[in-house]
């Protein structure tokens, strides 16, 4: 487990993500999701690469249903990039590091 990746839930989503001074990449995932496990090491790498410029957070959809419903999470993994409390980019499904880096760089 990467110490640069925050694990957040319904209770602290607003303060950790929407009120953040830095952009936040949020990974919606579940324990039973194979593609989620595939991209998890990439998400950890991104947390290292963008440390100081962006935060990375994970939300377990099984334990945090209210947040998953609020952001219309129907398919996982789903990554949302927030900046100033607004969604700037969305990626659904397992993709490579290059595609995620491109998405992040456009927003930062």
UniProtKB/TrEMBL annotation:
<dbReference type="InterPro" id="IPR036249">
    <property type="entry name" value="Thioredoxin-like_sf"/>
</dbReference>
<dbReference type="InterPro" id="IPR005746">
    <property type="entry name" value="Thioredoxin"/>
</dbReference>
<dbReference type="Pfam" id="PF00085">
    <property type="entry name" value="Thioredoxin"/>
</dbReference>
<keyword id="KW-0249">Electron transport</keyword>
<comment type="similarity">
    <text>Belongs to the thioredoxin family.</text>
</comment>
<dbReference type="InterPro" id="IPR013766">
    <property type="entry name" value="Thioredoxin_domain"/>
</dbReference>
<feature type="domain" description="Thioredoxin">
    <location>
        <begin position="1"/>
        <end position="108"/>
    </location>
</feature>
<protein>
    <recommendedName>
        <fullName>Thioredoxin</fullName>
    </recommendedName>
</protein>
<keyword id="KW-1015">Disulfide bond</keyword>
<dbReference type="InterPro" id="IPR017937">
    <property type="entry name" value="Thioredoxin_CS"/>
</dbReference>
<keyword id="KW-0676">Redox-active center</keyword>
<keyword id="KW-0813">Transport</keyword>
């Amino acid at each position: 487990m990467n110490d640069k990746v925050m694990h957040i839930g319904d209770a602290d989503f607003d303060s950790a993500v929407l009120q953040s001074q830095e952009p936040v990449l949020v990974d919606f995932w579940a324990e039973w999701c194979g593609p989620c496990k595939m991209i998890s090491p990439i998400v950890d790498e991104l947390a290292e690469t963008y440390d100081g410029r962006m935060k990375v957070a994970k939300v377990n959809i099984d334990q945090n249903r209210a947040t998953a419903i609020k952001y219309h999470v129907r398919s996982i993994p789903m990554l949302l990039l927030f900046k100033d409390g607004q969604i700037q980019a969305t990626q659904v499904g397992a993709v490579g590091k290059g595609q995620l880096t491109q998405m992040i760089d456009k927003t930062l």
